[in-house]
Fold this protein.
Amino acid sequence: MMPTILTPLVLAISSAAFVPPTDQPAKPGARASLASFEELQGRLGAPDLRILDARAKGEYEKGHLPGAVWVDPKAVAARAAQPGALTDRESWETWIRPLGIGPETTVLVYDDNRQLDAARVWWLLGYLGVERVGLLDGGFALWSSEGRPVSQEAPEVAPRPFPVSFHAGRRASRAEVLAAVEARSARIIDARSEAEYTGEDKKSKRGGHVPAACHLEWKNFVKPDGRFLPLEEIREKVVKAGVKPGEPVITHCQGGGRAAVDAYVFERLGHPSRNYYESWADWGNAEDTPIETGSKD
C-alpha cells in the first residue's frame, strides 16, 4: 500500500515573479512560473502553497501529491463555457472559496493530461486575480514513477473568501480579436490541430482559421509525460513560425483549454499574452467573422 504523507507541500516561488491583477495587460511572464519536481520536493513544509490536482476524481483518490486539493477540470470547463460566465464574479467567488486560496497563497497546478487541464485552471486563476500561480513540470504518472511522495489522504482545507478581480489583460473578446487582425496589433495564435486550422475538421458551423493566424499546436510544446520542451527549443519553434520576440499574442483553440497551454508558453517567453477563451466555438459559429481555409503555405 502506498504511504500516506500528511505534511503540507510548499514551493517557495519568489513573489517578485508576480504582479497584482489590474485592468492592464499582464506583465510578461508574471504568472507563468514552472516548478520542477526537485524544486517542489526540496521546499516541503512552508504553509503558503496550495497544490491543485486537475485529474479525474477517481485518479485523485487512488493517489495524489501530498497536500493536493482536487479540482474538477470538467466542471471548470463547463462553468467557464456558460454564457456570461467569465464576467460572473459571484459565481467564481463561490467556486474558488473551498480551495482555501488567499492573497499570500502560491498556487501550483498539475494533471496527467499533458498540461491541458492544468493550464486551463492556471489561466483561469490568473484571470480571476490570483497573483501567484504556476504549473508543475511533469504529470502525476511521472512524479509517481520516480518514487516521489504520494498520498491517498484528502487534506482538510478551510474555505476562504477570495475577492475575484477579473484581469482584463489576460482575456480577449471576439471584438478585440477582430480589432487586432485589422490593426495587426497582436499575433493570433491557433493552438488547434492542423485539420482544424485548415477547416478539414470542422467543430463549429464554419471551419478554418482567423485570417493570418499563426498555427502553433499546443501539444508541440509539451512532451507526453507532461514536461515542457526546453525554453530555447520552444523559442526556436515560435520564431520559425514567424512570431517576433516580445510580440503581443492572442491565443485561441476551440474552447479555451488548448489556448491556455499556448498562452502559458508565450508568457514564459516574455510575450504579452491574452486568451480568446470563447475561441472557435464563438468565432466559427458567428455569421460575420472573417475566416480563411487551407494551410498557411
